Amino acid sequence: MAKPSYTKDDIRRIVKEENVQFLRLMFTDLYGTIKNVEVPISQLDKLLDNKLMFDGSSIDGFVRIEESDMWLYPDLSTWMVFPWDNGHNGKIARVICEVYNADRTPFMGDPRNQLMHILDEMKEMGFTDFNIGPEPEFFLFKLDPETGKPTTHLNDQGSYFDLAPVDLGENCRRDIVLELEKLGFDVEASHHEVAPGQHEVDFKYADALHACDNIQTFKLVVKTVARKHGLHATFMPKPLDRINGSGMHMNMSLFTKDGNAFFDENGEDQLSQNAKYFLGGLLKHARSFTAVTNPTVNSYKRLVPGYEAPVYVAWSGHNRSPLVRVPIARGLSTRLELRSVDPSANPYLAVATILAAGLDGLKNKIEAPKAIDRNIYAMDDDERKANGIVDLPSTLHNALKELTADEVIKKAMGPHLYSNFVEAKRLEWAAYRQEVSEWERQQYLELY
């Protein structure tokens, strides 16, 4: 999806041509949840002149009540008019905003600002772009017709690449694609995924910042269209047991002014030394950034053997069981595919920590271990140990312990986001530990 270029005059013209009556000023909180302030079109000039304020004290992970006034600076390249009919009230447009403190300095509790900070570090190292091609998966569940609330009833029993009538989500998925294309997305493919009720829509890569913007827009479109079909779309990593969970594989490539920095026509496997050092950094910090890329208690129900999700810290160009895969495409398409990320992740924070891990590999010339081209799931513990393969954290609690011990990833999050994130996730884990599940009652109530 190409990054558009809009001027203030362009936006004023589009507002008149499209009869835009309301503006949604969007940003993202600590947890990756989309937030927005909606204002009438009469506030357009104030917005374009960076003169709109909001109360940041009510947003999770933002600021205290005594320092709540914050500015919203629109990123004009994210301007978008929603195609959905708004009756007689005209159309609604959105723009993604950067959050600034009252003193007009960038607020570093804004995950998008933090990603921009890491991208600036990347540019100081001589790189121009970090491209991301995300592959977010989601489930469709039926809505209760009486309450309108989500159920856990699937709308189909399809599997990978199935067609209607088995795939009853096909019409919904097709409408999602059409809405995305109206918004300027370049959709490359859409299909039913492995699990019943599970779907994937793949859209073209973009630079890291706008790829994260696209993920947030994608989630909004998917949920909006699904509801029109009487369905609830969820990006929860593992909504049902004994079936595959939803991932968000991240395809990534680093560029200089001369082209793809991961490609070397004369290198081993045509991978550059840059690619190998970046890969080395990814693997070194994988256990630490997992708390960010897989940030919920539920995330770790997906990261178990037997359901296609990666469990082991390793890489390969020839099989899909390791954490990182190197697809066969070369030239400008040379890339690394990180397979552990799930769609509950805050995309800005996830990409910031992933990029920081790779840059650390480049700065310190961290050599990637040898590729593992066997099915790791078929290895026993001794074989994995002999090949230097370690596991990803098995719980959110263990992932947080890894995160708190890794200065590179902590720095990539910034002190404000890091401290608020760890505090919130420790509370989440503590609340989970106190819950008694139905599984426990079935296992132990009569036995003991």
UniProtKB/TrEMBL annotation:
Under which main EC class is this enzyme filed? Answer: ligase
What is the free-text note on the cofactor? Binds 2 Mg(2+) ions per subunit.
Q: Whom does it interact with, and what assembly results? A: Oligomer of 12 subunits arranged in the form of two hexagons.
Recorded catalytic activity of this chain's protein? L-glutamate + NH4(+) + ATP = L-glutamine + ADP + phosphate + H(+)
What GO CC annotations are associated with the protein?
A: cytoplasm
The record's SUPFAM superfamilies line, in alphabetical order, gives: Glutamine synthetase, N-terminal domain, Glutamine synthetase/guanido kinase
The UniProt annotation places Mg(2+) 2 binding at: E135
Q: List its EC numbers.
A: 6.3.1.2
Q: Name the Gene3D superfamilies for this protein.
A: Glutamine synthetase, N-terminal domain, Glutamine synthetase/guanido kinase, catalytic domain
Keyword Ligase belongs to the record: yes
Source organism: Ligilactobacillus ruminis SPM0211
Q: What is this protein called?
A: Glutamine synthetase
